[in-house]
């Protein structure tokens, strides 16, 4: 271990690793402080599986093209316009050069997954998933001379005037202090701190599941905000998806996500539908369902499908409940049987011609005369056996974070902090005001991680 480091990177996921490798390649002596133990290193990145990438033609595993304007339009749809256009376009435009950079640092790609994702043109899938990406980056970082301390709980960054003077952390039951010349914060959001989540959301948050790492508790974020570092984002906004209600409280990961919603109806505990299940293709709408479920009684929803839809989506990690009748399925799901039967029959009556049904693109097969409507993939639920899943809100990461500029630099009301940068989920609220676009978190982390590493190494040089 070096006795003196040029740069301390706080966090151990994609953004942190991109920053550390970029800085090390520029000649900086870099230390990564990762809160998690080594087997759980990587934060939420180990649960990812793809990277959303602009490209002007076929690129790696990506087919056709995906322009900056189309990418930005997709982002506007999911965020409702709540984004910093300059930073968003920077992330989008830079993503094209990131894919070959990722390959050069050990990431391998594969063709896109089948099912409802429909991402062959927009998202590059990691061979071996996020865990493989994280391991490849750690190997590359080691070759570059980056040091890593696991189980390192950063407790305080001392801000004096316009610079960070030292970093305090605990390791093996002892307190430590280092004085790096620059600091990059890439330690995620606060979602694993259930008390903080509850202060933001109220008591319903105690029913949320945290699909990502249990180590993102926002300690560094809280410390910096308390010292007046500029913040961005709404504490109630987050990447929240509807996941299998049987998932664990923490760390269930991406496999607990359910992709069956477009081919289903979704009801609450009173067996009432509450939103359009076919509003758009799943990668552009899956992230709204966590908040939708959060607004239902007991923060729970229920998916109902029939036999003809069972093979149309990616298999679930837990098998669905199964019954020969809707009434039996309702009993298994603790729903009112008569009400579920009535809801399904009302939906079935509203379905029209289904000959144009197409599971992987918007098909316009819609209901008529019911509210809420189902605007695509609306087929009657008539073919037994019937299947069901329970849904809970699964929070991936929160959007309250550190405000950064185009150089990933943090600031206070008095101006920039000369030696503090942020990347990844801890600053994603600068771009994501609400909603989420599949694979975009990895884009933000990769782009701004590399920017932060470049700028921090320039500072120390």
UniProtKB/TrEMBL annotation:
InterPro entries: CobZ, FAD-dep_OxRdtase_2_FAD-bd, FAD-oxidoreductase_2, FAD/NAD-bd_sf, Succ_DH/fumarate_Rdtase_cat_sf. Keywords: FAD, Flavoprotein, Oxidoreductase. Coiled coil: none annotated. Residues 6-433 form the FAD-dependent oxidoreductase 2 FAD-binding domain. Its cofactor is FAD. The keyword Oxidoreductase applies. It holds the Pfam family FAD_binding_2. This is FAD-dependent tricarballylate dehydrogenase TcuA. It comes from Meridianimarinicoccus marinus.
């Amino acid at each position: 271990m070096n006795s003196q480091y040029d740069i301390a990177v706080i966090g151990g996921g994609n953004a942190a690793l991109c920053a550390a490798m970029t800085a090390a390649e520029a000649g900086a002596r870099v230390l990564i402080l990762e809160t998690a133990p080594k087997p759980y290193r990587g934060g939420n990145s180990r649960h990812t599986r793809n990277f959303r990438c602009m490209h002007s033609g076929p690129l790696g595993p990506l087919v056709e093209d995906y322009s900056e304007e189309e990418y930005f339009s997709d982002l506007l749809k999911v965020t409702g316009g709540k984004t910093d256009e300059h930073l968003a376009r920077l992330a989008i435009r830079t993503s094209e050069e990131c894919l070959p950079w990722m390959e050069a640092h050990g990431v391998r790609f594969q063709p896109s997954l089948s099912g409802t994702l429909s991402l062959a043109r927009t998202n590059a899938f990691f061979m071996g998933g996020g865990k493989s990406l994280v391991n490849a980056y750690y190997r590359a970082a080691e070759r570059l001379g980056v040091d890593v301390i696991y189980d390192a709980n950063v407790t305080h960054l001392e801000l004096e005037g316009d610079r960070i003077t030292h970093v305090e952390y605990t390791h093996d039951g002892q307190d430590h202090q280092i004085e790096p010349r620059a600091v990059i914060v890439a330690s995620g959001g606060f979602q694993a701190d259930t008390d903080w989540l509850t202060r933001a959301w109220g008591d319903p948050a105690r029913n949320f599941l945290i699909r990502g790492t249990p180590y993102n508790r926002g300690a560094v974020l809280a410390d910096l905000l308390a010292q007046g570092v500029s913040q961005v984002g709404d504490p109630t906004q987050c990447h929240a998806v509807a996941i299998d209600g049987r998932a664990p409280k923490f760390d269930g990961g991406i496999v607990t996500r359910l992709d069956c919603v477009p081919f289903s109806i979704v009801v609450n505990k009173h067996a009432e539908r509450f939103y359009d299940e076919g509003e758009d293709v799943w990668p552009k709408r899956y992230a709204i369902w966590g908040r939708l479920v959060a607004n239902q009684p007991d923060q729970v929803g229920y998916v109902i499908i029939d036999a003809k839809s069972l093979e149309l989506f990616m298999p679930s990690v837990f098998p669905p409940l199964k019954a020969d009748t809707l009434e039996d399925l309702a009993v298994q799901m603790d729903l009112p049987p008569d009400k579920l039967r009535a809801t399904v029959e009302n939906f079935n009556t509203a379905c029209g011609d289904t000959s144009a049904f197409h599971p992987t693109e918007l098909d316009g097969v819609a209901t008529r005369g019911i509210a809420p409507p189902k605007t695509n993939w609306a087929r009657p639920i008539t073919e037994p056996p019937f299947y069901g899943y329970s849904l809970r809100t699964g929070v991936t990461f929160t959007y309250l974070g550190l405000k950064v500029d185009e150089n990933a630099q943090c600031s206070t009301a008095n101006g920039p902090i000369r030696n503090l940068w942020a990347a990844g989920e801890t600053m994603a609220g600068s771009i994501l005001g609400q909603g989420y676009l599949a694979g975009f978190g990895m884009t933000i982390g990769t782009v701004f991680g590399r920017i932060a590493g470049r700028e921090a190494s320039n500072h120390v040089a």
